[in-house]
Amino acid sequence: MKIICIGRNYGAHIEELANERPTDPVIFLKPDSAIILKNNPFVIPEFSENINYEVEVLVKIKKIGKYIDRAFAHKYYDEIGLGIDFTARDVQAHVKSKGLPWEIAKAFDGSALIGNFVPKSRYKDLNNLNFSLFQNENKVQDGNTSLMLWKIDELIEYISKYFTLKIGDIIFTGTPAGVGKVFPNDILKGYLENEELFSVKVK
């Protein structure tokens, strides 16, 4: 399986990091070694002084697809979830300044928290889902999928032009504004429509 991540998919997040608004989805990948094993903590790596949380809605692909038309994209997933794209912001700033890829800042071991998945049929409209992240009981991110620049089915259409989607692949659909630094002993909890889908400790 592969983890396909979308950057700069919420306008307010683009503004808070002073990034350029993209004309197409920004794609990067994480290897399976980025996944935090169930019930394990997130361990701050020694090479960064500024690890940021980025809560995101996740989509789990259920069948193989290539060049998927947007009108049929909904047939390729039945479950959605919530996760965190942990980002070494200082490392990212360094590689971006040199025009280099983001992987060492985005795809390092343990950089992908994948929470529980739930049936998409539970929700009336996937393009109007509320989700949030709490850091030690304080709400730090509050998003709604209606604010995505590219919605889930549009992302599947775009991604499948370049990568064959396979069973079990997971798409991180982008983070809203409010990203911030994590600290040792933080407890991070993610909610989709007020249902807790993950809780992780930071070490």
Describe the overall structure.
By secondary structure, the protein is α+β, with helices and mostly antiparallel strands. The protein is 15% helix and 34% strand. It contains 4 helices and 13 strands. The chain has helices spanning 11-16, 89-97, 103-106, 152-162, and strands at residues 3-7, 26-30, 51-53, 55-61, 77-85, 87-88, 112-119, 130-135, 138-144, 170-172, 180-181, 187-192, 195-201. Strands 2-1-10-4-5-7 form a 6-stranded mixed beta sheet, with helices on one face. Strand 8 (130-135) and strand 9 (138-144) form a beta hairpin.
Write the layout of secondary structure elements.
Elements lengths: L2 E5 L3 H6 L9 E5 L20 E3 L1 E7 L15 E9 L1 E2 H9 L5 H4 L5 E8 L10 E6 L2 E7 L7 H11 L7 E3 L7 E2 L5 E6 L2 E7 L2
Parallel strand pairs: 1-10
Antiparallel strand pairs: 1-2, 3-6, 3-11, 4-5, 4-10, 5-7, 8-9, 8-12, 12-13
First-last Cα distance:
27 Å
Assign an overall shape.
Answer: globular
Instruction: Tell me the CATH superfamily.
Output: Fumarylacetoacetase-like, C-terminal domain
Classify the fold: give the CATH topology. Fumarylacetoacetate hydrolase, domain 2
Q: Give the C-alpha Rg.
A: 16 Å
CATH class, named: Alpha Beta
Give structural attributes.
single chain; alpha+beta; Fumarylacetoacetate hydrolase, domain 2; 6-stranded mixed beta sheet; 4-stranded antiparallel beta sheet; 4 helices
